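Possible race condition, two jobs.
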Amino acid sequence: MFRKSLLFCLLIGYSSFLSSQNTAYVVSPSGDIKQTTNGGATWSIMGDAQQTTQDMSFPTELTGYVASPSGDIKQTTDGGATWSIVGDAQQTTEKISFPTASTGYVVSPSGDIKRTSNGGVTWSIVGDAQQTIRDISFPTETTGYVVSPSGDIKQTTDGGVTWSIMGDAQQTTRSLSFPTELVGYVVSPSGDIKKTSNGGVTWSIVGDAQQTTEDMSFASELVGYVTAPSGNIKQTVDGGITWSIVGSASQTTDAISAARETPNSTENLNSNRFEETIKIHPVPTHGQLQVDAEGTTLNSVIIQSVQGKVVFSSSDFSGSRATLDISFLSAGVYYVEVRTENGPFVQKIIKE
């Protein structure tokens, strides 16, 4: 019974993890909302926020917020189908960022920061970034970043009260997205992508989206989206190195928001007991992958892409160790599910 319950919880969590990375929303300047659940390949009309929209933020797959230029805040809890007025930030609003369903931030063009802790109902002045703002991104409730149009980066670690100069992306910046506290991305109006892995201190060129870019949003460290003003959508699954056309929202697009990867989504799918006994290495790999299941027997190994497509499956094992040849796979991120007599185990890998 324990094994069945664990397997059910693991597979549901794993499925939800993959689903969240493939779910994103776009909004037009007039408030038309569209959603994708397949990584941008197709988009469905979800609803209408019925207000002029400046920015949008979806901290989960179903809960999202839009803000008007004057600070009017609306919320959806059903994936954009219906929207309710929840509050008024009472300031000119440039961008918004909600790291959780209840905690969010708005920033004015001049850097004034306001915060809500009750889902946008009430807003309090918390600080001043003291620079012209192009975008804002809070990966957690207390750690956030702002960027100026010229690429100057500032960070807060106390919920917007104080801000410190971190670095300079050294490019004209259209959008900013930090999926984690240390990993972040900026994009220029022409699609040039830069990445930081140390909280904005240093930035490196990683790729080029090769399109005019209106907005950008990363669901995780590796999976992200950019949208053109016309609604053309591109996706990366390797941290901005390569970008593929995945679809078109078929509407004028003001903002895009990818549903955030649930914290500890893959890490907490496995019990400590399995983490101690199953090892998958090396990561990253160039083609050979070693699976060691100490003290148990391998039953099967399944590898899926970030889109949830099974790209490798084998049950031809007779012991606790196996060497897999995955050299045929394209470079990118994959999820390896190892099934043993003790239960399943999932680990994220990178194929170079």
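Job #2 (started ~2 s after job #1):
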Amino acid sequence: MPVQVRLAGTRAAFRTSSVADKGHAWELKYDTQLDLPSVTVAEVPLADGEEASYRAVTRSISSTAEAQLEDEEELVVLAVRTPRARDDTDHTEELLAYHEARSRLVLEVDPARPREASEPAFVAMPFGLKPYPERGWKQFEADLSYTRIMTPTLIDAGYRPVRADTDALLEAIDHAMLRHLNRSKLVNAGLAMLNPNVMWEIGLRHAWRRSGTVLIGPKWVTSPFDVKRIPLHQYERTARRISDAHAVAAIKRLREVLADVGLKRVDSPVFANVGPEMEDIVLPALDEAAEAEAGRLLEGISHEQLLGGTPPETPSELYARAAPLTDQQRKSAGRQLALLRDAGDPAAIIDPLLGGSRPLDEPVEVPRRDALGQRLADGPQLGDVVRRVHSWICFASILPRP
């Protein structure tokens, strides 16, 4: 993925002023990253004074991005940073405000945010390539709604997306899926194709929780009678494409909706009609360790489905961490991961691990499931929404502070 880097002053001067004091490891990483073939470095001349130098770099970032926009493309700003209180001018905020004032989408990701600080958001939707005879389509790429709309919006809002392939769900993750469906602050359900499994999950959620269920769907979807009075937040797409403009519009709309989830307005027709004073139904707790590990397995599967490649932990690490689960549950979860790839006989890969004939910390290489998985693995993930962001993402300078 091509990357353009903007530095205040020369590369050597920036290294001395802003990297060297952090130690040799930082210097090595700095040089290694800038020497990558995909990286182009532009040196922005220092202005008179620190404030002016900051502004020169941020203006260079914006002007480069604007100059490289092509027809039918959207400029999306992705800020990867850890928010912190400052007494001086925050030039990153100035950069974001500049683009927000021009109605551009600004997404933020905090790389230092611990997993525990992000609420899980359960995603109920159809996955993969599906026939859609009702619309005359031989193939409908359902995953586009997840990769181009749901995932970036949920991460930007501070959630961690969790999903399960409802068409291939195995018993090992049934209990984890049900508990995410029951306990998650947010359930984001996609009504494309009006998938029966998804409608079943929505019904369960509405029976259990008074609020925190958000329905989205393409423009052509008409809500079934039982959920017709529930807001359906719609977006534009075709069978195999969501344009940049439509993705950005959908993200902006969904972000507004997610901002209201904390208000806990009743969105369940069960609670609205039977009695909003009823208490939410919470499933009985499992053994804490077992539930935590089952949740991690489900999240690992979610990552595998999204990336088409390696989940946050190798499959063997996931199995090893699943000790509190029963052997059958561990085996089924392992097979579920393997089935997401074209593994031939999944048992031939999974069973030796569970039987102890292979070190549990040894990664397993399994071919990806299909061409879709390969395409997602080879391309940027969030970049599937911010397709052109690679042409202008730049690292703003960090000038030394007194």
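The longest helix spans residues 288-307.
Logs attached separately.
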